[in-house]
Design goal:
Length: 103
């Protein structure tokens, strides 16, 4: 099992899920669409998604989710080198970096 934080900002990312996944919403409103049905998560909500589903990670604002995935090598098995929708500019910044970016 592995896990991490995803920092998402106004995205809709289609995804073929090749692992079992648990998602915990930490900030904002996160929407997961699976088989045409949407599940809305707000801070404190948890979702379990079994592997072999076509899903989409979606949010209309900034949100932070924690994910736990099994097996731990799911990215290698899927042939991925990155996770779509997770861009460095969406990551939290120090106050100094935020001020420089806004100038």
């Amino acid at each position: 099992m592995c896990g991490g934080l995803n920092f998402l900002n106004n995205v809709s990312v289609p995804w073929d899920l090749t692992c079992d996944e648990i998602i915990y919403c930490m900030k904002g409103t996160f929407r997961l669409t699976c088989d045409g049905e949407s599940y809305i998560c707000t801070p404190g909500d948890v979702l379990y998604i079994p592997r072999d589903n076509h899903i989409a990670y979606e949010c209309d604002e900034t949100c932070i989710i924690f994910y736990a995935a099994y097996p731990h090598d799911w990215k290698q098995k899927a042939g991925l080198t990155f996770v779509p929708g997770i861009d460095p500019e969406d990551m939290p910044q120090s106050e100094e970096e935020s001020e420089e970016k806004n100038e």
